[in-house]
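Let us begin with a simple case.
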Amino acid sequence: SSSFRLRNDSLNAVRLRRVFDLFDHNGDGELTAEEIASALDRLGLGGEKSEIVSAVSSFVPEGQSGLFFEDFEKLHRSLGDSFFGGVDVEPNEETNEEDMKEAFKVFDEDGDGFISAAELQSVLNKLGIAEAKSLAQVKQMISSVDQNSDGQVDFSEFKVMMQGIVV
């Protein structure tokens, strides 16, 4: 959906860098078509590998085997323009709030209005993040933003956390 494309440039840049880092499975700073295909498969969004290779290859500079972050940004911009028509929405409080709600829903898997340690661990596992293997580490992540100490992250705590990322 178009709501996946955040209207806040700072959040979008942070999100895109995080996606690049998560997809770069071997951590070499170069993202191959195979790494992209593998990450999409882990997220349940897999596509035809030949289509992914074709889309990525035109953005890989000569002499490289993959995309550096700057190349990945160009690919993302190209795909974004294809999927979203290149329409830039002027950010305002209402659209930022909607973006936050959409992002929150990704983590709030059961839709109860809270992100539990189990839900966070599940999403982090899908993304292949090593910290997800330890429930203790996931609980520590929760406690670092859990202002009311209920062991969960509610929407207001999530918004504070996201605003802290931008600052």
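The second case is a distinct protein. As before, the sequence precedes its structure tokens.
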Amino acid sequence: FMGQALLEKLLYSCTDLDRIYLLIRPKKGVEPKDRLAQLFATKCFDRVRKERPGAFESKVFFIAGDTSEIGLGLSEEDRVMLVNQTNIVFNAAASVRFDDPLKVAVKLNLSSTIQMIELAKHMKNLECFVHVSTSYCNSNRDPVEEIIYLPHSNWRETLEICETMDDHTLSVLTPK
């Protein structure tokens, strides 16, 4: 959702952008190219279709990948291209399900972010890296303020626990 809104705003308001690369994974048998076409057909992009015809074809390119895979599921060719041509990274990939097992949530929300940061460290022309976290962060707070809240646990320890602990023990410890 956040990525769609961001993409629409970039296409509509930032007409001098040369290219936008989207990392898209296959999902439920639908290939990245087809998922991109489905995305552009949504109501969210009505304004762009009407006022910026051709923006989709000339500015937006998909890269097949998957943030849940090692190396983000990128081909070596795509990795090299991103390293050499990327100026700005918006990382908005995340799971927003409340019922994912902890191991899955950590893989999608933590491990993938670490991998994106590692890739960004190699980008030769990187000017900015923006991480968009889930809009459900700190939903237990009222109000949610524009401050950085201390984490409940160390992310390195959480990652290590999820990578080394068996699923049953992890499910018992998850509420803690």
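The chain has a mean pLDDT of 89. The two ends are 29 Å apart (CA to CA).
Keep these points in mind for the review questions at the end of the chapter.
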